[in-house]
Design brief:
319 residues, mainly alpha, 11 helices, 0% strand
Amino acid sequence: MQSSREPVPPCQPGDSSPLQMARSYAMATRPMFLTASLLAVITGTSLGWHSAGRLDATAALLALLIIALLHAAANVLNDVYDELNGADRLNTQRIYPYTGGSRFIQNGVLSLEQMRNWGLLLLSLATLLGFGLGAYRGTAVLGLGMAGIGLGVLYSAPPIQLASRGLGEIAVAAGFGLLPVCGAAWLQTGLVQLPAMLVAIPVSCWVANILLINEIPDASSDAAAGKRTLVVRLGIRGAAYLYMFLSLTAFASVGFAVITGSLPLLALLLPGMLLAIGLLNGIRIGTAAHKTADLKPVIEKTLAIHTAGCLWLACSPWF
């Protein structure tokens, strides 16, 4: 059932003070989860910096700001479309604040129209800065930016709704893993190099697992709303096997990066530990089929795997 500890909305309905409204709009983006995309850019930037022997700080900062705006827009617009399809209103099994959306629309903090306009504004700002980055580093970066925007919007927007088609994990893996890691590295080197591509794989797997585990408590309401996510299609046990497969793939790709000389041998140390945690998480997912509230520690460990793994890979070239 819904957690009794779900926080009171930061702005009560009817409170229109500028400070409270600013806080509401900021919190509606779910800022604590923006690290999922920011860490991918940091990892790619570190790889590119090491390869180029210099840091283009302007390009790096612009990339970080753009990905943060894109991620924030995707979070807000996902709340809008999950209200329209009824998934968030039907959700009584959410584990707040990790699943079930921000609850801002349902709790009356911001209206559906306010959230939609806020999401579109964030998307417009990201696009504007993307053109600025393209002018600074070349038009080739615009292709990456348009792909990122497309994935962010089509993840939840009808009629495509990638998440509802069981393609949400692939979209998130590409939009918050492959594209930002390789794109950030390219901004530093001007090249798409093997090390960045190999490092992008574990980052993509770890972030896909974040979405996968977060979809499990929401599976019943998603199914009732016609939102056929990968968890709805596979079932919880199937999702557990996929979670473990992605954990294994993340470790294997780091191992291949070591074999090819893209990363030093020491780079395998932490990913090996994270693999063990990931496999244990997968086992726990499989045993939580009838009590999804038990998944909160698994969700938090999944977030920790992504954070620790990305930071480790960002540092690995410098070992």
